[in-house]
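User: I'll paste a sequence; please echo it back and then give the predicted structure.

Assistant: Echoing your sequence first, then the prediction.
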Amino acid sequence: MNVQVLGAHNCESQDSKLISLLIDDVLAIDAGGLTSSLSFAAQQKLKAILLTHHHYDHVRDVPTIAMNFALQGSTINIYSTQSVYDALTTHLLNDRLYPDFLKQPQGKPAVKFTTVEPHKPEPVEGYSILAVPVNHSELTVGYQVTSADGKAVFYTSDTGPGLTDCWQKVSPQLLIIEVTLPNKYEQYAKEAGHLTPALLQQELASFHQLKGYLPQVVLVHMSPNLEKEIAAEVAAVARALNNPIALAYEGMQLNL
């Protein structure tokens, strides 16, 4: 399994892109920096997109990927919760802001939406997909993606502390988890449903206690202007846990 980080941050600039992951060139998770990171040919290789929640930095490129598929006469499959479907059709693909690509002109829609049910494994393009609720300000699910040969990655998406129930449902070799802010913003992070390095340490300690191991850990959703401070604090967490922790970057390749 190859996991490419297309977008690793919560703000966009010339040097940073919004959250999006790509697995084996065919399965995307979140669409913040999806079309801006891929050629048209690479976009057409996509078979499915998993969306974690409806915040803008995670769904922004859904309209643009839909337009590209519509112009090619092909269909992209999107999987997520009912609340994400409602947000997309109300605010983005609503025939006002952008065309409703879930309709079927000439019998073939550019977007096919399938609702996922938390805690219920689903087969998607040769993978087993498990949606697991996490703790964010809106209904959000993380996804464990397991390949046919048993390789598993779990991406939490945006989450605050309190992941014990979540950890009981997943057993990944690779954990992609958010750390949005440095420790001095801990109270705000808790209120907004995000993690700091200190809060991350608590969650990883909980994971180790429950599962008996720590997976490879990669961090996303960092605030770019605070990333140096986050990196220094994360280094201390890695030493305390005796487990490497890497900050993701655009173009990062992870292989399982």
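The CA atoms of residues 89 and 111 lie 11 Å apart. The chain has a mean pLDDT of 95.
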